[in-house]
């Protein structure tokens, strides 16, 4: 006799295989790469490691000073801990952090697939219907987009189909026994993901509303028990509500004026890290928070296309889900109306407070004059503002669309049904490889940590300050620097979680009280003079800092999504001169990493001002630096540099994208050259000291040697006599 | 398929087929049309709107005075030079091509859909694609090239049509460009890109120098059709007016 669990075991295998296909080529590099070279993947990996490491040591506390040292950061601000905790045992078993993260991701897809499979099976009556439902829900652009952004906690979306399934069971037989799991699941959702808790509550209310329109003798007990389950879940989560508020501080109302053109500009300047920290005020941050509501709304052009984009902000339930939703509605008729209504309402809510035609701000006036339903819910319904990323409400619409498909599938008869379900499963799982901008063809994020960080661990005690210090994730470096802590294990001031205004205000207060830290802030883009006193260094010593780390070489972000500010990562002169003159030889050097030890107290002179004006540096421009475009040089090709004849030194950032050639700095008269560093696929800062004096008519130039080379260039600077 | 739901089942499958066909064929086009319609309606203040608004303000006495007026005059002159470079580079590129190449460019002048550029804030993707193609095929411009004279061929085409034609020629490489031609086209292209890059910031500075009233007027002008060439014809008189106000009403030192 066949074991009843066997089909489910088989289904688990099918969804795991589907996950491998959907995320391909991830399974080939579980320990070395991650999908999502943005911010969240790196901070999530950091969180997995931190939870495992602290739990293993028996020292897990809500507030940690491992990041944002010495002020400390409240882990509840992440808003999701339970899923990451699941991965902790993998770390204890010896898996690397990226491997644990990737296994968690594959497991999340599999779990989500099984949950939606169960819903589909119930609605259709067989496993083939389950497979169709599971495919449409799990292999969707929404979940792929969240995976691409590194939001594994959103890929774990099993709560929705499970919640829908439990509610259907309750409607069928409204007993307390069947109501209890509804409440338990809702209560459990919280620690996994507060967004999904609110969204699950919305799904439950929508299903109750639908049930109420049907009527019947079991309506009253069904409503009563469901309401009790929801209330019970609320009571269980009551103590956690202050912690929820930690993750999303109080959000104020929005109006049409909130989205005025100048506010878009201000919001862009804040998120690009271009507003000086000292000028940041709470009301600006509140406004910036409010702008995220529109930024995270689905635009009409994206909804119409329903394509398969890499960017989660452009994602929708997707063409397959909409098409099969229509199929289910036609096939199932009146029985499907409730699901269709839920799908329509929540798809409408993804459009946010005002209609966006595309993602280009500002919003048109006609749109601002006609608020959408989301606007009223956000402003008037308690807790609804927690759903401040409207596009994510698409996951509720997706649940309803997948359910519709399964319901319709169950109404049909024919031998071709398994082929339809299996074919759809395969097509859906292959979408990232076939459609639109084929997001699966993009490069993955390199999760290997530079080896020098292991050596850093062995240096004498002291917390670190990584340069540049940023208050916003203006490039992916900020998040990666936090992730590198999994190897060096030293407390660090840098923190990638300052997008929340409460922590950002604390950061402003701490950094604002120390002129060295003010100098370190966005030092890659900061204009000289750079100035601080020895007292500032002494204060850092007293706080427990020991090292300042600068990066003369690094692997650039492999993706350049909108708003990319990669130039912020490249320190230029006089910053390098400041580091060398103030701290001397690096305590550690390698992989482009320069680890400088903060001077001991006896080497500091109270009140001594240190200042670097930058007057002794001249920056030269060539078209490719101005346009931020790569240049291809064949052997012997030369780019003339309009530098001073009596320059003493030269420095530049180079990034070799392609080709085997090298680059030298050369002078035409006297004939002279010196090599510049151009390791493959890395930005590298090179300095050439002791230049010869040019003869009259002589010229500086960059010359390709040894073959062709495609380069990006930045910060071409000559040092002259002060 | 059998049973009572036969007709409904076929209808459902037909709906599925139609929906999939719509998403495969109609939806991308509809989405693109929406984006283009939105782009056309954006209330960005173009240079010619600013000039037209400035001319109106001159007549109403609403221009700034003193240092701001002088600064606005400088910025407007600079902007006009940039605007000329932005539109003229393609004609300079045409000047270095032979007749067969120009004919090929004319034949390929129909715009085709390009992916929306995420690589650059201001530069149109066709320029980025041209630059990348030329750089990959011929390398960089090794030295400063003398600008080619403006072409007198294909004068009935708008600059944007010429740019699309050049892109078609460069990407197809039929007829192929010689290295010397490619380098001079590249030099002209880089000049155009530099002008494109510089325009928005300078325009913003001019908006600030002209003051909020002129900007508001320009914004309202941007909501209705305006002949750019007629508006820009007002520029010399506007510069003169700003210079006069800049000198006559400068605060005494």
Descriptive report:
- The complex is a heterodimer of chains A (722) and B (253).
- By secondary structure, chain A is of the alpha+beta class.
- Chain A is built from 29 helices and 20 strands.
- In chain A, strands 8, 12, 13, 15, 18 and 20 form a six-stranded antiparallel β-sheet that branches.
- With 253 residues, chain B is mainly α.
- In chain B, 70% of the residues lie in helices and 0% in strands.
- Chain B is built from ten helices and no strands.
- The longest helix of chain B has 36 residues.
- The radius of gyration of chain B is 25 Å and the shape is flat.
- Chains A and B meet through helix 15, helix 16, helix 29, strand 13 and strand 14 of A and helix 1, helix 5 and helix 7 of B.
Topology (elements, then pairings):
The complex is a heterodimer of chains A (722) and B (253).
Chain A: H1 6-22, E1 33-34, H2 40-57, E2 63-64, E3 73-74, H3 82-92, H4 97-124, H5 127-138, H6 141-148, H7 152-155, H8 159-172, H9 176-192, H10 194-214, H11 219-237, H12 241-247, H13 261-271, H14 282-295, H15 300-305, H16 319-332, H17 337-349, H18 365-368, H19 373-380, H20 394-411, H21 417-434, E4 445-446, H22 452-457, E5 463-466, H23 477-483, H24 485-488, H25 501-512, H26 515-520, E6 530-533, H27 534-543, E7 545-551, E8 553-554, H28 575-583, E9 588-590, E10 593-597, E11 609-612, E12 617-620, H29 623-627, E13 631-633, E14 638-641, E15 649-658, E16 662-667, E17 672-676, E18 683-688, E19 700-705, E20 709-719
Parallel strand pairs in A: 5-7
Antiparallel strand pairs in A: 1-4, 2-3, 6-11, 7-10, 8-18, 9-10, 12-20, 13-20, 14-19, 15-18, 15-20, 16-17, 16-19
Chain B: H1 6-41, H2 47-60, H3 66-94, H4 99-107, H5 125-138, H6 159-172, H7 179-210, H8 212-221, H9 228-232, H10 235-248
Helix pairs in contact in B: 2-8, 2-10, 3-6, 3-7, 3-10, 4-6, 5-6, 5-7
């Amino acid at each position: 006799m066949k074991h009843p669990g066997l089909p489910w075991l088989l289904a688990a295998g099918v969804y795991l295989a589907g996950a491998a296909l959907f995320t391909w080529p991830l399974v080939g590099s579980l320990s070395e790469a991650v999908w999502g070279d943005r911010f969240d993947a790196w901070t999530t990996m950091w969180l997995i490691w931190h939870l495992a490491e602290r739990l293993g040591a028996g020292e897990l506390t809500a507030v940690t000073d491992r990041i944002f040292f010495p002020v400390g950061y409240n882990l509840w601000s992440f808003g999701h801990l339970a899923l990451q905790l699941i991965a902790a045992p993998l770390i204890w078993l010896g898996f690397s952090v990226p491997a644990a993260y990737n296994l968690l991701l594959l497991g999340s897809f599999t779990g989500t697939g099984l949950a939606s499979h169960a819903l589909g099976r119930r609605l259709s009556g067989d496993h083939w219907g389950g497979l169709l439902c599971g495919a449409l829900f799990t292999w969707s652009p929404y979940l792929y987009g969240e995976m691409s952004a590194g939001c594994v906690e959103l890929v774990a979306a099993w709560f929705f189909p499970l919640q829908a399934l439990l509610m259907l069971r309750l409607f069928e037989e409204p007993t307390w026994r069947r109501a209890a799991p509804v409440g338990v699941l809702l209560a459990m959702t919280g620690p996994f993901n507060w967004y999904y808790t609110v969204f699950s509550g919305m799904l439950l209310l929508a299903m109750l509303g639908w049930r109420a329109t049907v009527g019947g003798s079991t309506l009253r007990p069904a409503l009563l028990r469901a309401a009790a389950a929801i209330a019970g879940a609320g009571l269980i989560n009551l103590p956690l509500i202050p912690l929820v508020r930690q993750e999303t501080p109080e959000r104020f109302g929005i109006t049409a004026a909130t989205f005025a053109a100048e506010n878009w500009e201000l919001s862009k300047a804040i998120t690009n890290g271009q507003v000086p920290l000292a000028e940041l005020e709470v009301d600006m941050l509140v406004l910036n928070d409010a702008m995220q509501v529109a930024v995270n709304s689905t635009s009409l052009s994206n909804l119409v296309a329903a394509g398969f984009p890499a960017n989660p902000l452009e994602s929708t339930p997707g063409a397959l889900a909409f098409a099969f939703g229509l199929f289910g509605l036609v096939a199932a008729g009146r029985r499907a109306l409730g699901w269709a209504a839920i799908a329509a309402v929540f798809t409408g809510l993804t459009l946010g407070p005002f209609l966006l035609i595309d993602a280009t701000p500002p919003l048109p006036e006609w749109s601002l004059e006609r608020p959408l339903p989301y606007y009223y819910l956000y402003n008037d319904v308690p807790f609804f503002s927690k759903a401040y990323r409207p596009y994510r409400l698409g996951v509720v619409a997706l649940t309803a669309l997948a359910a519709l498909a399964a319901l319709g599938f169950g109404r049909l008869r024919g031998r071709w049904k398994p082929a339809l379900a299996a074919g759809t499963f395969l097509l859906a799982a292959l979408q990232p490889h076939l459609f639109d901008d084929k997001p699966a063809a993009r490069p993955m994020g390199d999760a290997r940590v530079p080896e020098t960080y292991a050596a850093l661990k062995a240096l004498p005690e002291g917390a670190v300050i990584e340069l540049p210090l940023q208050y916003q994730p203006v490039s992916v470096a900020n998040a990666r620097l936090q992730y590198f802590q999994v190897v060096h294990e030293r407390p660090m001031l840098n923190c990638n979680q300052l997008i929340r205004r409460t922590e950002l205000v604390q950061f402003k207060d701490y950094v604002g009280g120390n002129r060295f830290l003010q100098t370190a802030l966005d030092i890659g883009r900061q204009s000289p003079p750079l100035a601080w006193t020895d007292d500032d260094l002494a204060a850092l010593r007293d706080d427990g800092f020991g090292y300042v780390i600068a990066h003369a070489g690094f692997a650039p972000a492999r993706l350049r999504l909108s708003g990319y500010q990669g130039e912020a990562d490249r320190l230029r002169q006089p910053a390098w001169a400041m580091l060398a003159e103030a701290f001397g030889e690096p305590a550690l050097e390698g992989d482009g990493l320069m680890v400088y030890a903060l001077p001991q107290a006896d080497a500091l002179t109270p009140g001594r001002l240190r200042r670097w004006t930058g007057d002794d540096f001249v920056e030269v421009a060539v078209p490719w630096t101005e346009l931020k475009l790569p240049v291809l040089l064949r052997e012997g090709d030369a780019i003339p540099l309009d530098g001073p004849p009596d320059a003493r030194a030269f420095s530049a950032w180079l990034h070799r994208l392609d080709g085997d050639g090298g680059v030298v700095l050369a002078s035409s008269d006297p004939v002279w050259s010196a090599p510049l560093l151009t390791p493959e696929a890395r930005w590298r800062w090179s300095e050439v000291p002791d230049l010869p004096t040019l003869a009259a008519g002589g010229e500086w130039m960059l010359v390709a040697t040894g073959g062709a080379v495609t380069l990006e260039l930045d910060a071409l600077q000559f040092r002259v006599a002060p | 398929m059998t049973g009572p739901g036969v007709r409904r089942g076929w209808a459902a499958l037909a709906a599925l087929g139609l929906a999939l066909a719509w998403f495969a064929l109609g939806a991308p086009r509809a989405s693109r049309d929406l984006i283009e319609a939105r782009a056309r309606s954006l209330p960005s203040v173009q240079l010619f709107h600013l000039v037209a608004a400035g001319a109106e303000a001159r007549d109403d006495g609403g221009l700034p005075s003193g240092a701001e007026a002088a600064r606005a005059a400088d910025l407007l002159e600079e902007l006009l030079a940039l605007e000329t470079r932005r539109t003229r580079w393609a004609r300079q590129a045409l000047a270095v091509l032979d007749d067969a190449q120009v004919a090929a460019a004319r034949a390929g002048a129909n715009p085709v859909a390009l992916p929306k550029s995420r690589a650059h804030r201001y530069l149109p993707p066709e320029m980025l694609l041209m630059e990348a193609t030329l750089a990959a095929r011929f390398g960089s411009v090794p030295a400063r090239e003398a600008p080619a004279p403006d072409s007198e061929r294909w004068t009935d085409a708008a600059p944007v049509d010429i740019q699309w034609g050049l892109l078609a020629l460069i990407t197809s490489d039929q007829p192929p460009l010689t290295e010397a031609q490619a380098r001079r086209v590249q030099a002209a292209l880089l000049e155009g890109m530099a002008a494109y890059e510089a325009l928005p910031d300078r325009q913003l500075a001019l908006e600030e120098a002209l003051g909020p009233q002129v900007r508001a007027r320009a914004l309202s002008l941007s909501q209705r059709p305006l002949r750019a060439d007629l508006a820009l014809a007002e520029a010399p008189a506007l510069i003169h007016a700003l210079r006069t106000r800049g000198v006559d009403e400068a605060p005494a030192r």
